[in-house]
Specification:
The protein is 56% helix and 0% strand. It is mostly helical. It has one domain: Phosphatidic acid phosphatase type 2/haloperoxidase (Vanadium-containing Chloroperoxidase, domain 1, Up-down Bundle), CATH 1.20.144. The longest helix is centred in the middle third of the chain and has 25 residues.
Length: 252
Amino acid sequence: MTVSLRSAAAVALGLAIMAGGFARADQPAAPAAVMAHPAKAFQILDAAAFDPARLLPPPPAEGGERQKAELAEVLRAYGMPDPGRRALAQWDNDHEDPSLFAPVLGFRFDMAGLPATAALLALVQNEASVASGAGKRYFKRIRPWAEDKTILACDAADSDKPNTSYPSGHATIGYALALVLVELIPERAQAILERASDYAYSREICGDHYPSDTEASHVLGSLVATRLLADPRLTDRLAAARAELRAAGLTK
């Protein structure tokens, strides 16, 4: 995915972040209920059905031509001269939760005032996080910044975890949340899906992940969301969230 395909809105948001214009009092903060560390086990999904060896292909082999080409692509994204887009990538790194969609859904998308939605999305975030964690432990792919020491990644706090590249946890969460939000707010489907894609691309700009990491995350996040949406145990929770979002003027 090339930089030319990134939305102008994403760049504008990055410039607003640089200027300190996004974290205003009328903007949604990261929801406390969702920001807590997720559980280390599935709450709804069946772990046996999320065996990474059966769901994802292996990443490109270390030292191979595909791996080298991917690293070159990451370095191009990492070295982009646009400070606004780089600021957005750092902001995205620091917002691994539903607040990542506030830039496209607006100030009313505030989990503090949407408890039913917050609880549902916290569950989605947990399941996506557990699924991506299983993949990381199975594949043990080396991160781009561990391959090229010139990269100062956005996620520098995780520098003691060099073999957690495949798939991306951020991107898996973003794609899973996006598909559930599309079900809840269908009128904003394209904006939500574009935001999830751009959020995944931030992982390359950060130097934290390869393109195939976020591609795998797209697959995995979609599977998480699809299975959750089909689970009858969530029917009432989805209805409650939809009603809440409707009352808040976020959907019809």
